[in-house]
């Protein structure tokens, strides 16, 4: 029996992100995702924050990088958040536009041509690629998939 057969309840716990400006990133993730700061380290050499919701840790932010996220390097491709409805995706899009976020595509797009699922694809203040999507309700209400031959979330 392989050792992975024992991992019956495997799920993502939280995602840790390196950021350049902790205060700016805390403000962004709180505004966009409604996360609360559950812990914060203020030592100038080890600044960090834990952000969660409903008693669950979701994202940890670590102020230990410079520059912008480099999508061409190995590591995180993008971080995706699922919501229950297309209305929630569109409300998030409106908020992000008010915040001046950069979008990969204009508005809600399907995950693939004809897909019922889809969402918005954008970056945080450090250029980290993010997605907010819903599983249903997108077909027929959004633009065409950006690329007919590949998943939208894989190549933005």
TrEMBL record:
Which CDD domains does this entry report, sorted A to Z? VOC
Q: Which InterPro entries match?
A: Fosfomycin_Res_Enzymes (IPR051332), Glyas_Bleomycin-R_OHBP_Dase (IPR029068), Glyas_Fos-R_dOase_dom (IPR004360), Glyoxalase_1_CS (IPR018146), VOC_core (IPR037523)
Domain VOC, first and last residues per copy: 11-135
The molecular function terms in GO held by this entry are: lactoylglutathione lyase activity; metal ion binding
Q: Does the keyword Metal-binding apply?
A: yes
Q: Which Gene3D superfamilies match?
A: 2,3-Dihydroxybiphenyl 1,2-Dioxygenase, domain 1 (3.10.180.10)
Q: Which Pfam families match?
A: Glyoxalase
UniProt keyword terms in alphabetical order: Metal-binding
Q: Which domain of life is it from?
A: Bacteria
Designated name of the protein: VOC family protein
- Annotated organism of origin: Kitasatospora xanthocidica
């Amino acid at each position: 029996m392989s050792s992975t057969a024992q991992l019956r309840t495997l799920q993502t716990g939280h995602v840790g992100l390196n950021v350049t400006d902790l205060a700016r990133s805390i403000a962004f993730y709180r505004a966009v995702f409604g996360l609360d700061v559950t812990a914060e380290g203020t030592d100038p050499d080890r600044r960090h924050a834990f952000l969660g919701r409903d008693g669950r840790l979701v994202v940890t932010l670590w102020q230990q990088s410079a520059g912008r996220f480099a999508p061409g390097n190995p590591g995180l491709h993008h971080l995706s958040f699922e919501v229950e409805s297309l209305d929630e995706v569109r409300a998030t899009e409106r908020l992000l536009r008010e915040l001046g976020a950069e979008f990969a595509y204009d508005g809600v797009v399907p995950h693939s041509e004809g897909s019922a699922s889809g969402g918005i694809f954008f970056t945080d203040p450090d250029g980290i690629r993010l997605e907010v999507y819903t599983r249903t309700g997108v077909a027929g209400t959004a633009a065409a998939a950006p690329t007919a031959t590949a998943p939208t979330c894989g190549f933005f």
